């Protein structure tokens, strides 16, 4: 009997030492000391199971593999975003934040127990194949995703450039799941894209918040300002299908538009370190030109922080559809064996105290995505005065030389194939122009 007790103690001691090596043992020991026997009994139960598996399982098993599996299960029971990253996965995660990695180019989460696409990343295999935000991934190749952790799903979708993988997708409007064959590629995410839409009106797209997003945005805004005579009249900031990224970059992006000293975002959690406030600092502030921020169901996390801050401070009009609603903070904790822990430690709140979690950001003006081709067809069916037989010609237009009409400069956006079919961007541009016209009318009236 005494031998069994001693043996059990030795097993417990061995497992605790293993956990310490993995970087989590100290926290467990502290909890055991603080909370008494309950935690000790749970650890004892764990060591009993570990001992039985090691001794009686049909094949010999590796202890580290069992420990990794136990940690994975523990974190999976918490929330969809907490996870354990073995050394190889942790290394890939660090590479991903720099903007280059191998795979398909989609951000995923668990929603209602189903692996769900938060958003496809622009110009990636998934994006080009037509994968959309909200798509449910039922299978990766022949493996069903039910009960598959996010990290396992990511591991299955990542791979060498040129290799193939098939995602089985269910989407609203589909009668049955549909297979999407994809070829993996090196994903090089360009964080910031920009262009001039029309004289004085600029467009900036942030695809993901990476290490250099703030620097890239600053360069983009300067270039756009120079292109438009040193002054912008309005900006469309496109955060659609932006799955988020680095918190500090979201704060720095917001600082370009939020006055110094004003709150951008704050976090609340159990630990003291999880309670943080981020206030706009002095820096390269933009002029107070009007801004329209575009969001949709694929806008998550960092992009929701920026949209929420600009909305609360009345610095921008938010247009589009409801955002994803990922308002939790994940802390990345490196562990002793080069593995990593992604742990949810806090929740985000907008400056006015709104929680983003599971709610998202509601647009000020709801504008659904639509194809303009059908609208253009409808427009072409309308009968106009010029279509009537024997209609009067305008005397002035008759006198205008044909050459002058040909040389008339079209607004920049009318020559951009991508923009002119993007209904939400055109609505945003119309709003900015309308605001500009309204200001002039009000000034004249005054």
Automatic annotation (TrEMBL):
Taxonomic lineage from the root: Bacteria, Pseudomonadati, Thermodesulfobacteriota, Desulfuromonadia, Geobacterales
A GO cellular component annotation in the UniProt record: outer membrane-bounded periplasmic space
Pfam family name, one: Peptidase_S41
Protein's GO biological process: proteolysis; signal transduction
Protein name: Carboxyl-terminal processing protease
Record-annotated PDZ domain positions: 90-160
Similarity comment: family membership: Belongs to the peptidase S41A family.
Presence of the UniProt keyword Hydrolase in the record: yes
Location of the region described as Disordered in the Swiss-Prot/TrEMBL record: 390-414
GO molecular function: endopeptidase activity; serine-type peptidase activity
Keyword entries, A-Z: Hydrolase, Protease, Serine protease
């Amino acid at each position: 009997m005494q031998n069994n007790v001693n043996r059990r103690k030795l097993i417990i001691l061995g497992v605790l030492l293993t956990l310490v090596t993995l970087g989590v043992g100290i926290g467990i020991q502290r909890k055991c000391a603080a909370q008494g026997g309950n935690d000790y009994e749970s650890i004892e139960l764990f060591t009993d199971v570990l001992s039985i598996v090691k001794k009686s399982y049909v094949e010999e098993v590796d202890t580290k593999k069992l420990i990794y599996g136990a940690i994975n299960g523990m974190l999976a029971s918490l929330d969809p975003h907490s996870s354990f990253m073995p050394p190889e996965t942790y290394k890939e995660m660090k590479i991903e934040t720099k903007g280059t990695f191998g795979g398909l180019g989609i951000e995923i989460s668990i929603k209602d127990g189903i692996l769900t696409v938060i958003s496809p990343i622009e110009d990636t295999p998934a994006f080009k194949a037509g994968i959309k935000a909200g798509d449910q991934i039922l299978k990766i190749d022949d493996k069903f995703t039910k009960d598959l952790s996010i990290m396992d799903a990511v591991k299955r979708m990542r791979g060498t450039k040129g290799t193939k993988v098939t995602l089985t997708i269910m989407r609203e409007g589909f009668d049955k799941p549909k297979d999407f064959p994809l070829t993996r590629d090196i994903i090089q995410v360009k964080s910031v894209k920009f262009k001039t839409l029309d004289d004085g009106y600029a467009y900036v797209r942030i695809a993901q918040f990476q290490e250099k997003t703030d620097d890239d945005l600053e360069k983009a805004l300067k270039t756009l300002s120079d292109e438009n005579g040193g002054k912008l009249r309005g900006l469309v900031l496109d955060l659609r299908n932006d799955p988020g990224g680095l918190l500090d970059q979201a704060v720095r992006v917001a600082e370009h538009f939020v006055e110094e000293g004003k709150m951008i975002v704050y976090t609340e959690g159990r630990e003291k370190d999880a309670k943080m406030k981020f206030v706009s600092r002095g820096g390269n502030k933009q002029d107070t030109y009007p801004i329209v921020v575009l969001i949709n169901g694929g806008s998550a996390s960092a992009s929701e922080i920026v949209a929420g801050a600009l909305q609360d401070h009345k610095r921008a009009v938010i247009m589009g559809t409801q955002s994803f609603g990922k308002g939790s903070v994940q802390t990345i904790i490196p562990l002793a064996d080069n593995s990593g822990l992604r742990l949810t430690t806090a929740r985000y709140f907008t400056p006015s105290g709104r929680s983003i979690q599971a709610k998202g950001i509601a647009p000020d003006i709801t504008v659904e995505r639509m194809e303009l081709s059908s609208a253009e067809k409808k427009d072409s069916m309308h009968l106009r005065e010029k279509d009537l037989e024997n209609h009067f010609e305008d005397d002035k237009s008759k006198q205008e030389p044909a050459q002058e009409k040909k040389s008339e400069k079209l607004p920049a956006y009318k020559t951009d194939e991508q923009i002119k079919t993007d209904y939400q961007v055109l609505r945003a541009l119309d709003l900015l122009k309308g605001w500009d016209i309204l200001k002039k009318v009000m000034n004249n009236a005054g």
